[in-house]
Specification:
5-stranded parallel sheet
Length: about 200
């Protein structure tokens, strides 16, 4: 057995997840936004977080770029590092669920297997996969960070949608078409879904 996993025992907390949910008056879970760069993941996630917060819900956004400034700054963008990036985010998200929060993650997360790994970390009613659907052509037209332009010039390696694959979700709980619907309409779609489930 590796020394990294020896002599470690899980310590139960004095405050349970259920108690925190009762205090917060809402369920705790992950909303996992996945899609191409510039599809609108972070924009929708932050707009939804604002609506939830204004409605007195405890919500926190984990954004791909922001996390890579700290927790995952040691990771690159090849397949191995992308998998580790998502694994770490899944574990952080699980801890936030335990704290009673609604976790909104905005990550390209291009591989179905990796997204399913995160789904498997939590309970069946604690994970929603939201596919932020937008064609690569539209994402490239938007290109707010100039990344597609750099990828076309081969200045960025392993760029999803150009030089690296993106595996669309097969059975996402929600599909948000950001080419045809506004940010507000997408937020409303998710909010309605959560209300109908009784999670908020």
């Amino acid at each position: 057995m590796s020394g990294k996993v020896q002599n470690i025992v899980w310590h139960d907390t004095s405050i349970t997840k259920e108690e925190r949910r009762v205090r917060n008056k809402h369920h705790s879970f992950i909303i996992w936004f996945t899609g191409l760069s510039a599809s609108g993941k972070s924009t929708v996630a932050n707009a939804l977080a604002r609506r939830l917060f204004d409605g007195e819900k405890q919500a926190f956004v984990l954004d791909g770029d922001n996390v890579r400034h700290g927790l995952n700054k040691d990771l690159g963008f090849d397949e191995k590092d992308r998998k580790e990036n998502i694994r770490r985010i899944g574990e952080v998200s699980k801890l936030l669920i335990e704290s009673g929060q609604i976790v909104l993650t905005a990550f390209i997360s291009p591989y179905r297997e990796d997204r399913n790994v995160v789904r498997g970390l939590v309970e069946a009613d604690e994970f929603l996969e939201v596919y932020v659907k937008c064609s690569v052509e539209e994402c490239e037209r938007r290109d707010p960070k100039g990344l597609y332009k750099k990828a076309r010039k081969q200045e960025i390696a392993h760029f999803t949608g150009i030089s690296a694959p993106y595996e669309e979700p097969l059975h996402p709980e929600i599909v948000l078409d950001t080419e045809d619907f506004s940010i507000e309409e997408c937020v409303q779609q998710v909010t309605q879904f959560l209300s109908e489930k009784g999670w908020i």
